Amino acid sequence: MFQTKGRLIRSAAIATGVLVASALSLSGCSAPAQPSDGGSATSGSIQWWSWTPDNDLAQREIAEFNKEFPDIKVTFKKVPNADYTGVLRPALASNDGPDVFTVAASGAVGPVSVFAPYAQDLTPAITEKLGDDWKSQVAPTMADAFTVQGKLAAFPWAKQGAGNMWINKDLFDRYGLSAPTTLDEWVKVCETFRANGHGCFKEGVGGSGFDVDTLHSIANSVEPGSFTAAARGEKKWTDPALVEAWEIFKELSQNGILDEGAVGVQQYPDVNNAFLTGKVPMVQMGYWYSQYATVNSLTAALAGAGVPSDTPKITIVPVPFPDVAGKGNPSTVFSDPDAAQAVNIKSKSRNAATTFALWLGASKAGQQAVANNVDSIPTLNGVEAAWDTIELVNPQVQTPLLKDLAKKTQEATEPRQLSLSAVHIQGVIDANQAVLTGQRSPSQAAEDMQRVADANPVSK
């Protein structure tokens, strides 16, 4: 779309301030009064605000919803993830906010902890729809991730994962190259691409926080679980494994793997457009990037990038993150509860909004629409993408690899950023930037990050 397809943060320094102010102001608030009986559950007009999915995917989901509920008109408003929290809060405080709004389990983009006071408790509605055992019908941790002080503030509809890389297989094949599995192989692959006028591994380091995933992957190569342990407060950020991870991160820049100017570019649109238009052969994105293996989404993305309509559609495939530490530790996918639908407690169309929210997350038809968009993993048990109906750019090559990534993401138990608050994410971003620009050594950056952690202890 991360969000965004990456669904992380951009100006986290600003976003963190917004979150802190929001949390302080909301911590003692009572729920706003309901203005009406909520209207019809099967007709009306509702506004859905979110940072995800992309517009074309949202319209597909709405179209499927309208096959069952033709009298509910859903208008989708996509807000950039960097702006979402700041835009959503005043809208919900007014009487003109969205009827349905997406929240995240953690981080700085629409965290449920901040917006729960504005949300209707969906427990009665989901119990009526799925029965008293409804929690057993969704993926583990999903319901708890969006429950605040006993209130189901939003119903989950998407799980997201990261930790893998994506390559332009057409470019790799042109030069007879294979996806690198070690640091040395990665260096040699990049030498070939650069000798032929291409970039290599392009990433926006800082602005959107996608580099947090990169450091996480590097740390797992050094010592599996070390990043998660630090995020949970079980290990110091100054631990040798984390310092080594920052050393390797710096080495990616020094040995010609990471394209120049990483601190000055954005993952979206800069990196995204460069990769999808064939200018660079390799990026780190998560499962959400599967959507660009499809003809429809890649066509829409190229149109959005402003390139000629006859620009060739590339074959993108997921590959494991290389064993950059050389210790034989396997590449892993880490995942989180990603997105859930909340219903504005002040909405005059609460019942129609609830119908839509629960259709998207708690019905097989809604979750099938999510699955078939291949940008998120559905959270309702037993639903997966119908791969034989999805038009891929190169199905023979892409289908088995996308299926494998979906399976790994669905089964992954290592958290992506669930244990990281917005201020912690910003701390990692600051450390990454400081290391790459030479302002701080890896050990100094680790010390800086530990000071952030000490000042903002993880809730146990």
Automatic annotation (TrEMBL):
<keyword id="KW-0732">Signal</keyword>
<dbReference type="Pfam" id="PF01547">
    <property type="entry name" value="SBP_bac_1"/>
</dbReference>
<keyword id="KW-1003">Cell membrane</keyword>
<keyword id="KW-0564">Palmitate</keyword>
<keyword id="KW-0449">Lipoprotein</keyword>
<feature type="region of interest" description="Disordered">
    <location>
        <begin position="440"/>
        <end position="460"/>
    </location>
</feature>
<dbReference type="InterPro" id="IPR050490">
    <property type="entry name" value="Bact_solute-bd_prot1"/>
</dbReference>
<feature type="signal peptide">
    <location>
        <begin position="1"/>
        <end position="33"/>
    </location>
</feature>
<keyword id="KW-0472">Membrane</keyword>
<protein>
    <submittedName>
        <fullName>Carbohydrate ABC transporter substrate-binding protein</fullName>
    </submittedName>
</protein>
<dbReference type="InterPro" id="IPR006059">
    <property type="entry name" value="SBP"/>
</dbReference>
